[in-house]
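Note on ligand handling. Small-molecule inputs were canonicalized before submission; formal charges were left as drawn, and no protonation-state enumeration was performed. Where a ligand contained multiple stereocentres, the stereochemistry in the source SMILES was retained. For pyridoxal-5'-phosphate, this procedure yielded the string shown in the input block below.
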Amino acid sequence: MRIAIGKPDIGREEIEAVEETMRTGWVTQGERVEEFEKAFAKYCGVKYGVAVNTGTAALHVALASIGIKRGDEVITTPLSCIATANPIRYLNSKPVFVDVDPKTLNINPSLIKKKITEKTKAIVPVHLFGHPADIDPIMETAETSGLYVIEDAAQAHGAKYKGRKVGSIGHISCFSFYADKLITTVEGGIAVTNDSELAEKMRSLRNLGMDKHKKFYHPMLGYNYKMSDIHASIGIVQLKKLDSYITKRRENVAYLNEKLNDLNLKLPSEEDYAFNVYYVYHILVNNGKEKTVEYLEREGIETRPLLSFIPAQPPYQNKYDANKYPVARNAHQKGFYVSNSPQLTRNDLNFLVSALRKAVSRR
Ligand SMILES: Cc1ncc(COP(=O)(O)O)c(C=O)c1O
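Structure output:
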């Protein structure tokens, strides 16, 4: 593929950092993880970071730490990576989907209130594709109803809502460091919070529920979700590059949007309250999506579906009526994305523009 999705920017510094960590003789969770947690929490403007081995694990320990259990309900979006909803199910609790806003494709805050019942315990908004969810009204609703808010910021490192970094607004926020994310540790995740008790609980949950002071004593049922120092050492290097990656991603989108805005396509955008980090370049096509995608793939431009419309996925389809989320379903049917990697050159961007223009004119 000439323009592939998800190729991380791993260079000499990352390789040297891994080598250095391996030479210390300590490779599992240790000083590097602690250093990475502190640096990432500081970047978000939050007190504590709890690093784990995936973004999914971060969501799982976050939900477990606030006491989500059998019979509870957790409100979230139907349009996301399935990993947003699965951890709710791991705890035998029920994801309650609320349709999305057509402009941002994030959970629509005005539809949340009527889905709240006495079983509702939390809201998990996702900052999809790097565009922050409209989180002030979500926090307001949560406060009046006594709910926790866990931000799923897996795709939104460095994004801002009204000038505030995502990850610093909800009670806990979760990020992924999978290879195609804004920064990577190869596989990895982190949960950040200002609440010291929740942070301690999540630290124990990632380590088999072990007591902080008493070795091999496990007051709670935990998981083994630890991050290794090898992975953290990559993250420490990557974090230093995050802001420059974001600048390049925003420049890519400004260029692409300018060259494509006369076509009948819905291109990535940014609400007044948002600083979008544009995790990918996603496009909604009014008709002929299949042909457009086929053409791009033939030209060597990798495409992906607009993630998952979760209520229609096999583990969910018997439990949900997919017709109840028309905006999310429509976006999923019409949408796809291509890479918005910071490594794309001006030549790559021009190639993308000309292929997209041709693909659209052939429909
Ligand atoms: C929105 C969202 N939430 C959660 C996850 C889970 O992260 P991970 O793949 O690191 O488990 C992802 C990543 O793929 C994601 O895109």
